[in-house]
Amino acid sequence: MIKRNEKGQFIKGSKFSFWTGKTMSDEHKKKMSISHKGCKPTKETRKKLSLVRKGKKLSKETKQKIKKIVLMSWQNPETRKKMLENRIYFSDNKHWNWKGGITSINCKIRRSKKYYQWRLKVFRKDNFICQKCGIVGKNIEADHIKKFSTIISENNIKTFKEAMLCKELWNIDNGRVLCRKCHLITKNYGTRQTTQI
User: Fold this and answer.
1) Is the pTM of this model over 0.90?
2) Inter-CA distances, 105 with 139, 149, 189, 193, Å
3) Secondary structure E strands in the chain
4) Which sign, positive or negative, has the C-alpha torsion 182, 187, 188, 189?
5) Which of 47, 56, 51, 42 has the alpha carbon at shortest distance from 8?
């Protein structure tokens, strides 16, 4: 008789188990993979599978094997090409969730490399010290003295290229270091009025 545990799983190596000491042939594995292609498990099956996997942890050996497989696949030029194609596909209008490039210019600028460099320069200029309370390097942020959105509207910036070329936007003297608490209190934070403190 085949033994099962509390969750209803088969206990490996129990007596009279069908697969004890047996292995599947490559031909049989191929047939199984073909028959399972396109099949989606039901909600009940998914629940059962999640219950089975709960509490299980991968051994160090298994983790190392997975790392090796990932490294091997990454070193393969064909796999790299496929991954690159997928990345292009997900950032193109072919993707089902593409909404016509609606990411705002504001977000694009703030995520750009130039913006990160500007922040770092502002931090270095003020020695990573909050200009209001004097906290050193703890939850610090780069604040625009003249509001970011005001600069964009005054210079009539409508494209990412125009933003990259605008000198006023990247002026280090327009930036100061503030800790999170002090930054939230400022009158020009977020959508508040553009009056300086």
Assistant:
1) no
2) 26, 11, 18, 21
3) 140-144, 175-179
4) positive
5) 51
Give the model confidence (pLDDT) of 127-167 as tens digits. Answer: 899 888 888 877 888 888 888 888 888 988 888 888 899 88
How do 175-179 and 140-144 pair as beta strands?
Answer: antiparallel
Q: Which two tokens stand for residue 166?
A: 């605008």
Nearest in space to 5 (alpha carbons), one of 45, 52, 47, 48: 52
The CA R_g of the chain, rounded to the nearest whole Å, is 29
pLDDT tens for residues 66-87? 888 877 777 778 877 777 776 6
At 2-38, the pLDDT tens digits run 566 777 776 665 555 566 667 888 999 899 888 888 8
169 close to 156: Cβ distance less than 8 angstroms: no
Asked if 176 contacts 133 with a C-beta cutoff of 8 angstroms, the reply is no
Q: Where are the alpha helices (DSSP H) in 59-159?
A: 60-75, 77-90, 105-110, 113-125, 148-154
Q: Are 117 and 172 in contact (CB under 8 A)?
A: no
Facing residues of 54 across strands? none
